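Dataset card, provenance and construction

Sequences and ligand SMILES were collected as paired inputs. For each pair, a complete structure of the chain with the small molecule in place was predicted and serialized as structure tokens. The example below shows a pair involving fe (ii) ion. Curators did not alter the output after generation; any descriptive sentences attached to a record were derived from the structure itself.
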Amino acid sequence: MTSTFLLQITDLHIREPGRLTYRRIDTAHYLKSTVQSILRLPQKPHALVITGDLTDFGRPEEYAHLHELLSPLNGLPIYLLPGNHDERQGLRTAFPGHRYLPADSEFLQYAVDVGRLRLIAVDTVTPGKSEGGLCTKRLDWLQAQLAASGERPVVIAMHHPPFRTLIGHMDRIGLLQGAQELEALVRRHPNVERVICGHLHRSIQVSFGGTVAMTSPAPAHQVCLDLSPDAFAGWTLEPAAFMLHALPEQGRLISHTVASGDFDGPHPFWDAHGRLID
Ligand SMILES: [Fe+2]
């Protein structure tokens, strides 16, 4: 048995070809850079999950563009999840080969095997709203999936994080329904190794229901860091990144933040005689 490697990217906000996000960001260019970073990874990942905001407005031309931008990853299983910028039907239509997406269900949620991990993707979207929620139907579905997972290590993926970040404008559009119920559910299942989210375009970790819940940075723009109730609702081009979640043969899940881009190196620490380079 070998280690399991699950990649996570999030909040791509892809526009139609030639259009910039917020009239300023070439999100397609940044996604291309992230795709190249994934292809350069020393370990071959088992799967990639994209935790929502795949496009900026959920338009068919945007999904078609995304489809094309992901094509160099051909052969890597890719699991898509909607965010508040997505449109469920448009997403389904643009990715007919993604058979894990339920064809006629109200929600785009599913459970799949990734190596030794069970990946359970939960749909937190409230159509027409920026904030998200988990209604009883979705929580009941998750409960059934967790029960069916037995003792297997589980990663729960969702767009809206079920915790406060202290960034005021983002907390006002966070997971406004079902977070407490989710935490209680996770607490009853100690085999949940991680709750992985997007939405914040930043790296944030909190203790949650006896496990770790976290958000991933994004391939292009990040939400400005300002831990205030009246923080400016804006973005910056801080360095882009994504997540590599690794489950070793034995032990717990290890989450690495990976900078996206092409960097100088690698260079050695030690010289040919085994001495630290002075
Ligand atoms: Fe986003």
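Derived descriptions for this record:
The pocket of fe (ii) ion is lined by residues 11, 13, 53, 83, 85, 199, 201 (CB under 6 Å).
The longest helix spans residues 136-149.
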